[in-house]
Amino acid sequence: MAVISAVHSVSSLHLQSHLQRLNNGEFFFSTRPRKMKVPLPCHHHHHPIYSSNAFGCSDRTSIIINSTSGSSTATSAVEGSLSEVEKIKQRFRTWHWKGQYSINYFVSSDSPQQLQANHPPLLLVHGFGASIPHWRRNIYILAQNYTVYAIDLLGFGASDKPPGFQYTMETWAQLILDFLNEVIQKPTVLIGNSVGSLACLIAASDSNQTLVRGIVLLNCAGGMNNKAIVDDWRIKLLLPLLWLIDFLLKQKGIASAIFERVKQRENLRNVLSSVYGNKESVDEELVEIIREPANAPGALDAFVSIVTGPPGPNPVVLMPNISLPVLLLWGDEDPFTPIDGPVGKYFSSLPSQQENVKLFLLEGVGHCPHDDRPDLVHEKLLPWLASL
Q: For the residues 105-111, what does the mean pLDDT come to?
């Protein structure tokens, strides 16, 4: 998400705002791994960091407490005093991917069983530097009518950050496909922000997939980092600087110093404010959502791997192969993937070329529409979902 922009600001402080507004791709946090079936009981484990006895695990898709019981009444009273982020964390579960990586995820089934049966489940996929709680303003609205899943991609949030792992866009896409296969096991609507959007798009373009029902892209990234956007003069101009930053980040001491500065609260707040249209949405809770996982072991390695790694498949190549329903929601004040940049221009041209694609431009909204102005996102998203 916005965190990666701070790499540039730390490397050259006076270029911070300039770089953020010139970038038309995005540096973001996530080979095709061999599929390996994992026994379903492991899906029910709560994440050890956020374990709670408040929610039962007997039903794989439902974690609602029976409100008629005395214990659930007490739990409801406790829940009433918790923030949305704390409530979400209480419902964290763990899925073991490929038999070796612990992946943190969330599932909510607050909607009536009849609605769940008639509506496809949703899977929310965050962007770089973010995690499941970044959807705190969306989950419970969507859960009124849908079973909502959210996932921390490998390298982010409370999911594993294996040392020395080489992250690629294809890795995250395969993780998503395996999660659909092994955990959700139903045709699902993928909803992603930024690099999470691109991971969803790559997953949906897999000719073997049968479990993607539709795709929602919120300010889709053009690649895992800005080196993907080489057909824009602004990126060409900055490319030598980007390569220099790559070189510096590969020096362990320099990378550590930069990352420590990036994680400072005030730096995070400043960068987030620069990519959000609605500045009131940049609260202390948001800063902590980004900052907390960055302090975990392995976060620095993941950060460096993503910034310096290959950009991955280009959406221009992927979209012609997508026949599923696609909803594009784009904040018009996004400095990372602006609507007048190569990626934005391409996506804005699609509705006239592909009947399965719908686009809505959201005025006064930045790079993370779902958290920036959730009301505008829900206004367009909910009717589109209902039409499926």
A: 82
Look at strands 122-125 and 92-97 and give their pairing: unpaired
Side-chain half-sphere CA neighbours of 233 within 13 A: 1
Distance (Å, whole) CA 47 – CA 131: 14
Query: What is the three-class DSSP state of 268?
Result: helix
Altogether, the residues listed in the chain come to a count of: 388
Cβ-in-10-Å burial (0-12, 13-18, 19+) of 83 comes to exposed
pLDDT, tens digit (0-9, with 9 covering 90-100), for 221-269: 999 876 555 455 555 566 566 656 665 666 677 777 877 888 889 999 9
Beta pairing partners, 361:
330
pLDDT at 65 over 60: no
- The more confident residue out of 264 and 213 is 213
* E strands present in 99-139: 101-108, 122-125
* Token pair of 113 as six digits: 């069983």
pLDDT band at 16 (very low <50, low <70, confident <90, very high): very low
d(CA 343, CA 352): 16
Question: What 3-state class would DSSP assign to 30?
Answer: coil
Alpha-carbon span 229 to 386, nearest angstrom: 35
Tokens of 16: 């911070």
Extended strands (E) in 87-147: 92-97, 101-108, 122-125
pLDDT at 370: 98
Domains belonging to the chain, first-starting first, are: 83-385 (3.40.50.1820)
Q: What is the mean pLDDT of residues 352-362?
A: 96
Helix (H) or strand (E) holding 73: helix 70-80
Backbone angles phi, psi at 51, to 5 degrees: -65, 145
CA angle 40, 46, 48 (to 5 degrees): 125
**Strand 148-151 with 212-218, pairing:** unpaired
